[in-house]
Amino acid sequence: MNLTPFESEILDSILWQVEGFSLGRVTRRATTRILRATIRRIRPRLIARSQSAESSDREIDHAIPLHVLCDRILNAEDLDRSKLQKIIADWLVAVELTAQEHREVLRKCGLSRSMPDDWDGIDPLARYRIAGIQLLRISNGDEG
Q: Where are the domains of the chain?
């Protein structure tokens, strides 16, 4: 994952925030809110597009909801910069959807803000498959 100098500083900020949480200086709720706002400053890697989004207006959706990503970061053992960078590279990914898919289809399946209960922690596209949203994978994940 190639980070801009600004994004590199963001990783340092995340590590500092997680350290404050682990030392008991900040609550989990406050840390999660700060992490979500901080992570939003890093551009997610676009990995797929719904078939419907090919021909209509598109919206970007975090394939793995940010609060799930934050939990992964906060629960990582011995978090250091290389582990954090790997988590961000693997889990900070996006999908282009139509507004209807984004707001209605995922919500009807209970997946607008969560991953499936049986999620393996690996497949970032699991909630779209369960919701029946047909995706076209973007091969290198670097398009946008």
A: 5-137
